[in-house]
Amino acid sequence: MNFQKEFNTNKETWDKKVAIHAKSDFYDIESFKKGKTSLNSFELVALGDVSGKSLLHLQCHFGQDTLSWSRIGAKCTGVDISEEAIKLARNLNNEINQSAQFVCCNVLDVSKHISKKFDIIYTSYGVIGWLPDLKPWAQMISERLKPDGVFYIVEFHPIAWMFDYLQEPPELKYGYHQKGVIYEEYKGTYADENSEIISKEYGWNHSLGEVVTSLAQAGLEIEFLREHDASPYNIFPGLIKAENQLYELPSKLYPLIFEVKVTKKGA
């Protein structure tokens, strides 16, 4: 199927979000410019020492994570569908004296724009829901990894996306294995709920089985799949802040995030 209409709508929304997100407390660009990392404990522990390694960051928004990896020694390339996001990422890169590269393209088209292979491919928090099919995504990841290279994703748990958060209270509405597209239109963004922007978004739900199987079928070896009750971000209703400074459901009825780490077998 051709999903160009959906991709174009999402791109237009993300282009509009950039200026709003750049001013938000959520992204806190001024602290970032002064040296604050945007990375969380999950990804830092999972990837360890990245110094000297080439790293491709998929769906990087305006590059804070890309540049945070660059600051601790990785040789980074960031990719995003939004031209406005890539413009800001390049400006931030210059302002904080890093040497990251940024490419504007649909994540599914990365291999059309980048021929280099990487030691690490990374993506995080709110990424795969923009993709209608994970098979080409996983195949692209395999193509861009070096032998013995590592791919790592930390992402919001698919159970959390079964709810319609435009309802109060949130309504259990979408199927765990739902194949159809989900369209939402709402005021504001997760980074600034009071913004006047009207977000128009198409998204797709993906089960853990789909994530892991797509990567395995692309020839990648699963190192681990982990699920966690707590999230670094307070983006779902009713979360409470735990002693570890992460956010969780009072009931802990279901996990909020998952991690998958895979490797590409050496030639």
TrEMBL record:
<dbReference type="GO" id="GO:0008168">
    <property type="term" value="F:methyltransferase activity"/>
</dbReference>
<feature type="domain" description="Methyltransferase type 12">
    <location>
        <begin position="56"/>
        <end position="151"/>
    </location>
</feature>
<keyword id="KW-0808">Transferase</keyword>
<dbReference type="InterPro" id="IPR029063">
    <property type="entry name" value="SAM-dependent_MTases_sf"/>
</dbReference>
<dbReference type="Pfam" id="PF08242">
    <property type="entry name" value="Methyltransf_12"/>
</dbReference>
<protein>
    <submittedName>
        <fullName>Class I SAM-dependent methyltransferase</fullName>
    </submittedName>
</protein>
<dbReference type="InterPro" id="IPR013217">
    <property type="entry name" value="Methyltransf_12"/>
</dbReference>
<dbReference type="GO" id="GO:0032259">
    <property type="term" value="P:methylation"/>
</dbReference>
<keyword id="KW-0489">Methyltransferase</keyword>
